[in-house]
Structures are given as C-alpha cells and as structure tokens.
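Board notes (copied after class):
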Amino acid sequence: MNLRQGNGLVPIKNHTPNSSSPYLLVKFPSPAVFRSLYRNSITDATLEKYREIFQVRMMGGTLEEAGRHFGISRERVRQIEAKFLRAMSRRYAQSSETSSTLDLP
C-alpha cells in the first residue's frame, strides 16, 4: 500500500500481533513530527520538497505528477515515499508501545 492508496491518510505496516489487517491508516504527521522523522538528515528546503511530494501523492497524484514539479523521476518519488513510510512505521511502532491511539504525537 502506498500514500495514494491511503485516501488522505498514511498507510503504515501493522505490527500488532494477530491483526486481520496488514496496514493501519494514521493521520499525516505535523510539521514537527515530520521533521523529526528525518532527524536533521536533510535540509529544510528538501524537507519541504518531500512534504509537497507526499501531499500530491496523498491527493491521488501519480508518481510522475508528484515528481514533475521538482524534475525528479517516478522511481525517485517511489524511493522517497518508501523511506517516509518506513520512518512512519518505526515511529508508530515506538509510540504504540506506550499508547493505543493511532494519532502520532
């Protein structure tokens, strides 16, 4: 499942044992949480670029449409999206150990 299939929510892998669904849908993170997912590994300009790419994808845009504005390939958009979904999955797994809510802090 990818951002486009999440219908405005972020699909992350479900780490809950004995669950019938392989994915959970959670709210898109706030700018502060979004920034913390990358732990200062990218510049602010790149961070905003990523957020815009994700927004296009979450609104149903194709990989090509998401990358067109920034002149990047569909494959690069897919890689950026995959990295984001892995980071969200790790973040949710950490937060679910202390809370049962699907909203990320």
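Comment from the instructor: DSSP finds four helices and two strands in the chain. Confidence is low (pLDDT under 50) at residues 98-105.
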